[in-house]
Amino acid sequence: MTSVSLYLSVLLFQNGIAEDTLEALTATSEEISYLQMLSEGGFVMIPITLLSLLAIYVIAERWRVLSNSVMDNQRFLDSLEDMLKKGEMRQALQYCDDMDKPFSRIMKQGIKRLGRPIQDIDDAIKNAGKREVHFLEKKMDWLATIAGVAPLLGFLGTVTGMIQAFMQIQTLEGNVNPSVLAGGIWEALITTASGLAVGIIAYGFYNYLLGRMNRMIFDLEDSSTEFIELLQKPANKKEQQGIPQ
Question: Last residue of some domain: 85, 119, 138?
Answer without folding.
Answer: 138
